[in-house]
């Protein structure tokens, strides 16, 4: 299935991240944490598919993606940055494995936080955010996506760490086994992971070594 959808507007989030808000096709539904393959509806780009997670609430009037653009090569995300109201994207069937299974700790690397946005927004909107924690690693403080929004969610505990920003007053540690021992401690809970593949693999290994039940660890497969 391919659906051609109008971009309504784009909204800056960080220096290289934007919200892309789209007209919602009738009957097009998703659950928080799910994604679809997206293409740009321009000559030469229609067949270049990339997976992006919906970041709006599931009952929102319009659709939204929150996408980081990589300007170091002429790929899809770089081309997306040139789009605006009136341009079109191509959406496909909905899929995804990161779905909420109960309170726990969400751990993300950089733009890996995007699959968590709709989940946490939905929990916040329905009064079920308490008991959840969000830990995110970025290179610099200015890279943090939706920091103010997450920190304003009453009941959500947040922990930010940066790995290449000596001027920042935030925690400056990589998320490794020692980090998890000191900053998580309780491994008898749900964990949700998303980020670069090597990071997610390492986190799964660390959590298992520290006693977490593998069946309680959810990641995008």
Notes on the structure:
The protein is 19% helix and 32% strand. The chain starts with a strand and ends with a strand. It is globular. The chain is an alpha/beta fold. The chain folds into two domains: 3-95, Elongation Factor Tu (Ef-tu), domain 3; 104-219, Rossmann fold, CATH 3.40.50.80. The longest helix is centred in the last third of the chain and has 13 residues, at 197-209. It has five helices and eleven strands, in the order E-E-E-E-E-H-E-E-H-E-H-E-H-E-H-E. Strands 4-3-6-1-2-5 form a six-stranded antiparallel sheet. Strands 9-8-7-10-11 form a five-stranded parallel sheet, covered by helices on one side. The model has no long low-confidence stretch (mean pLDDT 96). InterPro entries: FAD-bd_FR_type, FNR_nucleotide-bd, MRET, OxRdtase_FAD/NAD-bd, Riboflavin_synthase-like_b-brl. This is Flavodoxin reductase. GO terms for molecular function: oxidoreductase activity.
């Amino acid at each position: 299935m391919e659906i051609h959808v109008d971009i309504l507007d784009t909204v800056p989030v960080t220096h290289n991240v934007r919200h892309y808000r789209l007209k919602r096709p009738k009957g097009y539904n998703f659950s928080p944490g799910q994604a679809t393959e997206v293409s740009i509806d321009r000559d030469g780009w229609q067949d270049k598919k990339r997976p992006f997670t919906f970041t709006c609430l599931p009952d929102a009037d319009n659709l939204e993606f929150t996408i980081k653009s990589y300007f170091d090569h002429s790929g899809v995300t770089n081309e997306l940055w040139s789009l605006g109201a009136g341009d079109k994207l191509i959406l496909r069937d909905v899929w995804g494995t990161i779905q909420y299974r109960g309170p726990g700790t969400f751990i993300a690397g950089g733009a890996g936080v995007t699959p968590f946005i709709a989940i946490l927004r939905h929990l916040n909107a329905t009064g079920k955010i308490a008991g959840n924690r969000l830990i995110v690693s970025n290179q610099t403080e200015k890279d943090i996506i939706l920091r103010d929004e997450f920190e304003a969610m009453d009941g959500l505990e947040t922990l930010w760490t940066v790995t290449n920003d000596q001027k920042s007053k935030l925690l400056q540690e990589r998320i490794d086994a020692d980090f998890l021992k000191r900053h998580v401690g309780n491994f008898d809970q749900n964990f949700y992971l998303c980020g670069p593949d090597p990071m997610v693999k390492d986190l799964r290994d660390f959590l298992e070594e520290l006693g977490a039940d593998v069946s309680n660890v959810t990641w995008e497969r």
